[in-house]
């Protein structure tokens, strides 16, 4: 696929970028290299290759999710400069 200035300008517009002069030529060259690499990948024979679902053989190596209360409301409010029953009091940040 041939990358033209119009294609680069269109993609740059979508990405809210602006390229001029040498930058445009440099980006165009980079995009042609990327497209060339992708074309090279399409030459690989994948007829007998099964689709990859997971990156490794391990399944669910995460720890068990155990609910545990580590900080009580009272402890959290203990050092609060201002508090109102169960809540922190902060200065107003929004105008009317």
Please give a structural write-up:
The chain is flat, with a radius of gyration of 28 Å. The protein is 38% helix and 4% strand. The chain contains 3 helices and 2 strands; from the N terminus they run H-H-H-E-E. With 96 residues, it is mainly α. The protein has a domain at 5-42: Orthogonal Bundle (Histone, subunit A), CATH 1.10.20. The longest helix is centred in the middle third of the chain and has 21 residues, at 22-42. It has helices spanning 5-14, 22-42, 73-77, and strands at 83-84, 87-88.
Task: Describe this structure in a few short sentences.
The protein is mainly α and 96 residues long. It has helices at residues 5-14, 22-42, 73-77, and strands at 83-84, 87-88.
Q: Provide a count of the helices.
A: 3
Shape: flat
Mean of pLDDT: 87
- CATH topology label of the domain at 5-42: Histone, subunit A
Q: What is the C-level CATH assignment of the domain at 5-42?
A: Mainly Alpha
The run of helices and strands is HHHEE
Query: Could you tell me how far the N terminus lies from the C terminus, measured between alpha carbons in angstroms?
Result: 56 Å
Q: Structural class per helix/strand content?
A: mainly alpha
How helical, in percent, are the residues?
Answer: 25-40%
Low-confidence stretches at least 5 residues in length (pLDDT < 50)? Answer: none
Beta-strand fraction estimate:
under 5%
Strand ordering within the main sheet: 1-2
